[in-house]
Amino acid sequence: MIRVESLTKTFGNKRAVDGISFCVERGEVLGFLGPNGAGKSTTMRMITGFLPPTSGKVTVGGFDITEKPLPAKKLMGYLPENAPAYTDMTVHGFLDFAAEIRGLRGDAKKSAINRVVELCFLASVLHQNVDTLSKGYRHRTCFAQSIIHDPEVLVLDEPTDGLDPNQKHEIRQLIRRMGEKKAIIFSTHILEEVDAVCSRALIIDRGNIVANGTPEELRQKSEWAGAVTLCIQGVTVAAIQEKFNMLRSAKKISTTTNGSHVTVTVFPRTAGDGDLTREVIAATTGWPVERLRTEEGRLDDVFRSITMPDTAGKEVK
Ligand SMILES: Nc1ncnc2c1ncn2[C@@H]1O[C@H](COP(=O)(O)OP(=O)(O)OP(=O)(O)O)[C@@H](O)[C@H]1O
Ligand SMILES: [Mg+2]
After folding, report:
1. Interval between CA 75 and ligand 2 midpoint (Å)
2. Which CATH architecture has domain 228-297?
3. Å from CA of 37 to ligand 2 middle
4. What is the reported pTM?
5. Neighbour tally for 100: CB within 10 Å
6. pLDDT for the residue numbered 316
7. Cα dihedral across residues 25, 30, 35, 41: positive or negative
8. Cβ burial, residue 7 (10 Å; 0-12/13-18/19+)
9. Residue ranges with strand state E in 158-199
10. For 272-315, what is each residue's pLDDT tens digit?
11. Which residues line ligand 1 (CB under 6 A)?
């Protein structure tokens, strides 16, 4: 439904998006991750036709966003960054306006408004002016606008930004449900959201895609994937280190002590290596092991290891 090919955007001598390509199919929720300034919003603005690309191509439902913007935009809902809205309208007025420009009239319009008011929990602020709304309600109003025409494609720039924990949960559930039938791309800085909502995640750094896979595949890239953590009582740290350092699949060992308890994490030489757990269990035969668990891998660790701290766009050479 969304096809992005060699998409590039430069601002002056800054290359914000550097020739990226990816697809999003119906039934997919793609999480778009990356540090501040990585190029997420710029990519989304180009996908939705708000910003012309410097080069490259975007098609939505088979329609080129530059050559056939109208049919492409009809298929799409867009929640821009910082949830802009017409502040002198009431929430109902704004949604009515959004429905009208999407071509909805009469009963169809009424039921579309009722549907999004319910989905986005807006009933209590329906007649309040948008400029007097709290940040979370303003965000939800703008989210409601993006789904008013029940589009097949949704582009959501940080849809849970500024929401309270209950609302974050509701909106994630909603995105996941909608993702069963639609093609959705959404950006986020909350890594737990990737697990909760996405079928696939894409990490972008300085305008380039640096990782693309299911949350499970990404976690497997973490040095924590397959690490074994166990708690042992009454054995010295030196004895523990000596034994675990000899394991074939172990790369490094970290220990913390609390009285006579030692908590040890043994990291695998190869991320995700299942042999390490067996080797650790065999090596501790006869030792008083209290707890032992194999780690799944951590998305924040993957994110940190593959993205650089300073990502304010790449200079064009
Ligand atoms: N209109 C513009 N003019 C000049 N530079 C711009 C413009 N829009 C974006 N940029 C630059 O492009 C780069 C990418 O910005 P973008 O907003 O896409 O990042 P982002 O990944 O969405 O970051 P964040 O997580 O902070 O929202 C940044 O260096 C930004 O300063
Ligand atoms: Mg952004």
Report:
1. 22
2. 2-Layer Sandwich (3.30)
3. 7
4. 0.88
5. 12
6. 58
7. positive
8. buried
9. 183-187
10. 677 899 999 998 888 889 889 998 888 888 888 888 665 455 55
11. 11, 14, 16, 34, 36-42, 81, 312-313
Q: Looking at the structure, give the CATH architecture of the domain made up of residues 2-219.
A: 3-Layer(aba) Sandwich (3.40)
* Helix (H) or strand (E) segment spanning residue 112: helix 106-119
Give the other-Cβ count within 10 Å of 289's Cβ. 16
The residues spanned by each domain of the chain are: 2-219, 228-297
> Is the model's pLDDT at 83 over the cut of 80?
no
**Which residue among 18, 40, 202, 307 has the greatest number of ligand 1 atoms within 8 angstroms of its CB, and so is best to mutate?**
40
Residue 313: predicted pLDDT = 52
Question: pLDDT tens, 157-209?
Answer: 999 988 899 989 989 999 999 999 999 999 999 988 998 899 999 999 999 99
For residue 263, pLDDT over 60 is answered with yes
**Which of 9, 10, 42 has most ligand 1 atoms within 8 Å of its beta carbon, as the pocket-test mutant?**
42
E strands, 95-207, in order: 153-157, 183-187, 200-205
Pick the more confident residue, 49 or 300. Answer: 49
What per-residue confidence (pLDDT) applies to 311?
A: 46
For residue 238, pLDDT over 80 is answered with yes
